[in-house]
Design goal:
The protein is α+β, with helices and mostly antiparallel strands and 149 residues long.
Length: 149
Amino acid sequence: MRSSTRKALAYSAGLAMMTVGLAFGTTTTASAASGCSGSLVGTYKLKQTNGTVMSTARVYYSTANGGTNCATNTAGLYYGKVTQLSVAIERGNLTGRQSDLGDYKYYAGPVRVTGTNGKCINIYVGATNGPSAGQTLVWQEAWHNIHCG
């Protein structure tokens, strides 16, 4: 194989590995836009019975304050349109509950609970197909005893 071809292949391979590394590296750390610090530890999709994703909950963990979990609920089908979204988080022993419910274009939260090191958490999310006026949370889901430390 010619030297210039080997160099081109080596360069391409290095670039590909760097791109993959950047892509995977950015998924484990919370972005500034989420308002959560720490590492992404879980993603949960709130779906209609036909499989349409109404929203996506993301849970983050950091070691601060004896363990801190943080959650957001990002709109799915109605992303960018005002819709009612909710997110709540609590320690698995049903204490420390923090929640956010409102009319948002992009996401509800962040909500945080501290003192979670060595404990499980529960998260609750909800979404509607429009603003809160005259609406109730149409799609709701809860995940109990998750991310036990």
